């Protein structure tokens, strides 16, 4: 995860960690696609393209326990559906994390039955999965929350997450990411992340030594976002900073995302590298809705870490997908008195009148009313 140049590891029982910066078919290598340009969706096609990544790799495996989206629905896709979470069965295939928050947030994560009985977990009337934070008026310590992890793990995949609402507000720190074993050796890909009133998503990778961005230029990387940290993605030699890329669009995170009825995030991990795409509601490619995704037609990504300087099957392996919402902690708490990030023109300390994140969160249950995920679906594909 990423925040203002400081990162903090998020571990699952000391194995998987999440860090903050501030988660036989072959895909055509980037540069040969044909996406058009439409800056409003955060994936605009840029004038300069990368050199092709020529690395070949074995077909990704799984283990189970466009900027101007094409309007023509293709008959097939090089990606096959291997896992789907939606509707009444959304929570099947997830484990509920119940250990102490690795990022020192003031939350207690609940098991599935406890989360349901406390009103934090449901499938709502629209058939969407909802994961909330406790809204009790005043609490003496931690607030209850939810963190879930896929039981399946993946080695190369296309993750597509359709959400209509994400947690937002002072003291709130949501994330959707993927994580490998023995952090940072297995790598971490933060797909959706931010804190407090931020409006622009930050996608970040954290890896072992050797993964880099070849450039900090958005044009060179052919991305719509902006590199906001360094180009060295190694967590242990950058103070856990990794390589963070901030979205250019203000409806990619937080309140503006919610006001637009959300949108679709996609993370592609294949032999060309790792890339994150975002499509605001109403701009989703028809191929995604039809279940035949064609990432090569989506245009430039919001964020990208090309294979040429970061081998996607060396620095990332055996990933689980994770949702959580924590409060304060090593990012939201650390930047409580800071401003100047898109959406945070006024610091939370100034806005709330509270000198610390923890004091505000404990005393203001009503401020947690927007601290919930509402997710239509998570679908996971792998190359045929």
TrEMBL record:
Pfam families, per database record:
GH16_XgeA
Q: Which UniProt keywords apply?
A: Glycosidase, Hydrolase
Gene3D superfamilies in the record, alphabetically?
2.60.120.200
UniProt domain GH16: residue ranges: 61-340
One of the GO BP terms on file: glucan catabolic process
Annotated stretches, region: Disordered: 30-78
Signal sequence region = none
List where Low complexity composition bias occurs. 40-78
Stored PROSITE patterns: GH16_2 (PS51762)
Molecular function as annotated in GO: hydrolase activity, hydrolyzing O-glycosyl compounds
Q: Which family does it belong to?
A: Belongs to the glycosyl hydrolase 16 family.
The record, for PANTHER family, names: GLYCOSIDASE C21B10.07-RELATED, GLYCOSYL HYDROLASE-RELATED
The name of this protein is: Glycoside hydrolase family 16 protein
Say which species the protein is native to: Hebeloma cylindrosporum
């Amino acid at each position: 995860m990423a925040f203002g140049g400081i990162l903090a590891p998020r571990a699952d029982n000391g194995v998987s960690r999440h860090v903050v910066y501030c988660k036989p078919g072959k895909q055509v290598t980037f540069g040969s696609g044909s996406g058009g340009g439409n800056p409003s969706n955060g994936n605009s096609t840029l004038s300069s393209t990368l050199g092709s990544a020529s690395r070949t790799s074995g077909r990704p495996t799984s283990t189970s326990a466009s900027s101007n989206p094409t309007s023509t629905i293709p008959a097939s896709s090089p990606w096959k559906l291997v896992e789907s979470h939606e509707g009444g069965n959304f929570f099947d295939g997830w484990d509920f994390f119940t250990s102490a928050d690795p990022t020192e947030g003031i939350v207690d994560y609940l098991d599935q039955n406890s989360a349901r009985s406390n009103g934090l977990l449901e499938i709502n009337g629209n058939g969407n999965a909802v994961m909330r934070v406790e809204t009790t008026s005043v609490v003496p310590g931690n607030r209850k929350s939810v963190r879930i992890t896929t039981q399946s793990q993946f080695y190369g995949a296309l993750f597509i997450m359709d959400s209509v609402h994400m947690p937002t507000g002072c003291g709130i720190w949501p994330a959707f990411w993927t994580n490998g074993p023995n952090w940072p050796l297995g790598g971490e890909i933060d797909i959706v992340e931010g804190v407090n009133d931020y409006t622009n998503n930050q996608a970040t990778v954290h890896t072992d030594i050797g993964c880099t961005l070849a450039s900090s230029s958005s044009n060179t990387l052919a991305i719509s976002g902006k590199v906001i940290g360094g180009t060295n993605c190694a967590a242990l030699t950058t103070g856990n900073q990794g390589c963070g890329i901030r979205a250019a669009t203000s409806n990619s995170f937080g309140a503006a995302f919610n006001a637009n009825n959300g949108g679709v995030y996609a993370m592609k991990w294949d032999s060309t590298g790792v890339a994150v795409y975002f499509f605001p509601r109403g701009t989703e490619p028809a191929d995604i809705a039809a279940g035949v995704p064609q990432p090569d037609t989506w245009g430039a990504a919001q964020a990208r870490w090309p294979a040429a300087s970061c081998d996607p099957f060396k620095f990332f392996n055996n990933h689980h997908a994770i949702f959580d919402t924590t409060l304060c902690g090593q990012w939201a708490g650390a930047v409580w008195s800071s401003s100047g990030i898109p959406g945070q023109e006024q610091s939370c300390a100034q806005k709330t009148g509270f000198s610390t994140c923890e004091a505000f969160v404990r005393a203001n249950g009503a401020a947690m009313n927007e601290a919930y995920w509402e997710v239509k679906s998570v679908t996971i594909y792998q190359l045929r």
